[in-house]
Fold this sequence. Notes:
Layout: E1 2-13, H1 16-22, H2 24-44, E2 48-53, E3 56-61, H3 64-82, E4 93-105, E5 108-110, H4 112-123, E6 129-132, H5 133-139, E7 147-153, E8 162-167, H6 187-193, H7 229-234, H8 243-252, H9 263-276, H10 279-290, H11 298-311, H12 313-326, H13 330-337, H14 342-355, H15 360-369, H16 372-375, H17 381-399, H18 410-441
Amino acid sequence: MRRRTATILASDVVSFSRLVAEDEEGTLRRLTAYHRACETFIARHGGKIFNTAGDSIMCEFETPLKAVRAAIDIQEAIRARNLSHPPQRWLQLRIGISMGEVTERNGDLLGMAVNLAARLENLAKPGGVCVSQAVHEVVAGEVSVPFIDLGERAVKNIPAPIHTFAIAWPGTEIEAEAARPIPGMNRKAALWFGGACLAAILLAGAGLIGRHLALPAEPQIASVANPSPAQQVAQGLVLSTNPAETFSKISQKGGLIEDSKSAPGLYYKALLFEAKGEISGAHRAYYNFARMGLEFIDPHLRYAALVREHEGPAMARQVYAELHEDAPTRATALLHALQFDAVERDARLKALVKEHPDFAPAHYFLAEEHSEERLGVWYSPRDRRIELASLAAFLKAYQEGRLDDFFLDHAVVTDWVDRARKKRDQLEGQQKSASAELFKLFE
């Protein structure tokens, strides 16, 4: 048996038994797709899978830095896929990373580093990443992500407590009392990473795709500044007077697409290709939809996530730079804005809201940009005011019936509205509590 030093990444699915019990076929199909995404990023960062059992994956990396970067990419890809499902059906991963000596036997790895990675994975929150102190010491100055010092934790079958750090990932509900920012992590670096919520799935650098892909050319369709569904029909698209209703009917038929060149047909076809793992087919369907010049954002969100996952983070920004140039709409402007790092993304979102104050999805993302979940310890009263005002604008659009124009799949609308209402109520409740406490001080 040969001994060597290695970095080990361990992952498993949260509440997998419950998800299987509720929908075995659908959960197993999604697990296959999610594992395929994991394998893509593991290979991209030079890792090698040495053990899989059910919903778990164990893999080895040459360096801690490669393992952490792979973990970040995996979790962002999983978040992207979860967007099209209600929260109770989200398939989330926990990831643990350790380093140390391992022994190889019959292609499998054994040793304390393997055991420790599994224990760290158990400490991670859903959608989160926990690393050992040794891993943190190596990567802290090399990646632009904030870490939370969780202190020493006692874990099963490890004789001494282990010093643990977690990536401060939005939505992982890291305990407030443990949330101590690591020295040396400045606000700009933390904000860069903090975009891993709904918009963060689309962060990217620069790359080449779009017109450089060998995709079939589509006829150019003239666009207008703010096309309504009726105007979209007039532009020659094969749509009903209500595209969202058409998409719903296609879904209810179980995949019978009468007109695969319509917007609902292309979107449903792209979803079918994704479910079957036919990525090139999904690319073509999404790309053809994206060039139609429509305002529906849910297909755009899925397409950008698909590009990022399978072509790498460097591709997504270029895709939407080109799409916004070729078929400019508010939807492509929004998706292009979401590709940038935190400071630039925030500025572009604010500019978009100022130019198009009735564009409800931009308000939703601006609220996410200034949320406490994203900013963590840097969340300020000013951020709270911007978040609350943006949520109010988004919910007003829903109450006035202006939100449905931006979604083909209305199940997504329901989820967004539900989350916006809960967050608004939470913020208003906090404001009332703070005012009551202040009033008591002057009694």
